[in-house]
Amino acid sequence: MKSALLHVSVPFVLCVALANTNLFDEVEVDLSYEHYAEKTVDYLPGFLRMPFNCLVNLAYIYMGLYWLLRHRGVKETSESRYMREVFALMALFYAPVQWARLAVLRRAPAVLDQWFTLPIFAWVPVWISFIECGPDKWRALPAAALELCSILSYGLTLAHRRGFEVALGCHITLALYKGVRVQLLHGDSRSRRSLLLALLSCAGFVVLKLLDHWLAQYLLFQRLTGHFWSKVCDVLQFHFSFCFLTSLTQRAHGQTARQD
């Protein structure tokens, strides 16, 4: 776990440092509670001012710890363990960033909330490449290059006000393409179910977030708002991605071992 923690924490610290400079002062981010449909509760402390949208971050922490610790004692290669641990640590690091964004309404955590979304999505193609190549042929350098490109792609926000949306769309498209391709090559009914659930969760994550205020006209979404449910979908997207990728890792590498 030490190498996974190092490889997640170093870029995290560098991004935090850059986000706290004036580099992203012109990036369009939302810095007010009016952006969210959930009503604030003024008598609560800042970190609970929007109770449901704040507390949903505990689900990221629970899910991250679940997948970080779940396979202890289970036989797996050091490389597959690394894939799982990095993805789980990304979820654990992401939760406090989202929470801080709502608690303080400052530019730095708002930028980081967007920024960290990109390398998280990029880890899906990295893991899929590991599944396709196998432990013997997989190399860390292309994976590091893809993650670096993902981090640098946030620079599109400096070129255009919709730069983040363009970068995120490219990340989602790449993850979708790689996911469907590896399912056709190595998948079974179990992994297909996980993939479909991950895709549905991803769609919910995007659509419910965009329709946050519009949905608030309906009673069902006035307390537990569209933005809250989009975060629930994001957690489920993480979880089913884990189910899909771990299942395919075991299946593909088990088939390789039998052929050898």
Molecular structure report:
- The chain has 260 residues and is an all-alpha fold.
- Helix content is 75%, strand content 0%.
- It contains eleven helices and no strands.
- It has helices at residues 2-19, 51-55, 57-69, 78-104, 107-137, 140-152, 156-159, 163-186, 189-210, 212-215, 226-259.
- The protein is globular and about 55 Å long.
- Residues 256-260 have low confidence and may be disordered.
Could you state the order of secondary-structure elements as H and E? HHHHHHHHHHH
The whole-number mean of residue pLDDT values reads 91
Number of helices: 11
Structural class: mainly alpha
Q: What is the total tally of β strands?
A: 0
Rg to the nearest angstrom? 19 Å
Cα-to-Cα separation, first versus last residue: 29 Å
What proportion strand?
Answer: under 5%
Helix content: over 70%
Largest sheet entry: none
Question: Can you tell me the residue ranges where pLDDT is under 50 for at least 5 consecutive residues?
Answer: 256-260
Quick one: overall form?
A: globular
